[in-house]
Amino acid sequence: NKLSVFDRKANSEMKCSFCICQSLLVFYVLLIAITYEEEIRPEIVQGWAEKLGTELWSLGDYVTRRVDVIKSFKEAKVESRDGGKVVNELVKDMENMMEHKVDAVRRIMDTAENAAIDSNPEEDIGDEFEYFNAKLLKPPGTYVPGVDPNGTRELELTPNSHFFDMPVNTAVSSVHVPTNVFDRAKEVIHAVKWSERLELTFRDNYKSDPSLSWQYFGSSTGFMRQFPATDWEMEPVDLFDCRTRSWYIEAATSPKDILILVDNSGSMMGQRKEIARHVVNSILDTLGNNDFVNIMTFVNDTKEIVECYRDMLVQANLENIRELKLGMKNMGPATFIANFSTALITAFDILEQYRESRMGAACNQAIMLVTDGVPYNFKEIF
């Protein structure tokens, strides 16, 4: 802050000054080159040196503003501060800030719950109902190639620095519907309609706390309402589904310990094996950092899909999920007959160990069996 006395002209002035200095040096070099055959008296060289030194000193003073810097530090003073008091003030400020954010989330939750309760699932909304579909928004008076003009809605979007200079409209919210969900399905339209009551809550939250960023509401039907409204980036392809995002999963489900048992017997070959791999990967995509998981294959015996995860559950973070998916990709060939009893007993033993020691998620536990068929219910194991 002490160096704030320097203005924006410093860079241009520095360049100009260095050009002057270079010109002086060139002049002296040329002068020496012209008179190199003549005898140069020491007092002349001394004069050159003094003049060059004076010029360089003046240049340094001018560019660095040495005098101004010295003056600015003459007013500096040392104050004693109580470290504990400073920390407490920071804690209080952080607490107040987080409380404002939590209050905003609570208001969204209360409004959504009340709107869902008041809605009528059997209401015939009709085809005339419209909403701001984020995929079909366009600026007024523009044409979107490849899209039915009757399927789009015009909305004025303005770049906003608070939202990373993205074009937004802070008066309304927009709705994103996943590609694999029909955006005019009855259950989707019904939920979109009652969620319109969130518009006022979104605006009030942003008005009371301008530091708020994006506000979301994710529905179990797949759509996501976001505020402020903005168009959705469709390139190269839209694969977004709010139901697979960590914030949705962690809010909708409790932490859990999961053991996935994958049948790798002789019947699980070809297409069945590929289906099993896809099922397991889909399960892994729904897990979050609060969950613990492991995958075991079983035939005559049971073994972990990742060797270093033996007899344990690992946190479902990105690194571990990546290793588990890689293990599924490199799963050994299907052989022999599956021993379900051994696999289930092993799974129950591991879950019991984690439950008694309060390790892992310390909440819900589940065993997922991926197979092409179970001979009977194995109730004696349970």
TrEMBL record:
The keyword Transmembrane applies. It comes from the Eukaryota. GO terms for molecular function: voltage-gated calcium channel activity. InterPro entries: Ca_channel_alpha-2/delta (IPR051173), VWA_N (IPR013608), VWF_A (IPR002035), vWFA_dom_sf (IPR036465). Keywords: Calcium, Calcium channel, Calcium transport, Glycoprotein, Ion channel, Ion transport, Membrane, Signal, Transmembrane, Transmembrane helix, Transport, Voltage-gated channel. It is found in: Membrane. Residues 257-382 form the VWFA domain. SUPFAM superfamilies: vWA-like (SSF53300). It is a single-pass type I membrane protein. Coiled coil: none annotated. This is VWFA domain-containing protein. It comes from Homalodisca liturata. One of its GO terms (cellular component) is voltage-gated calcium channel complex.
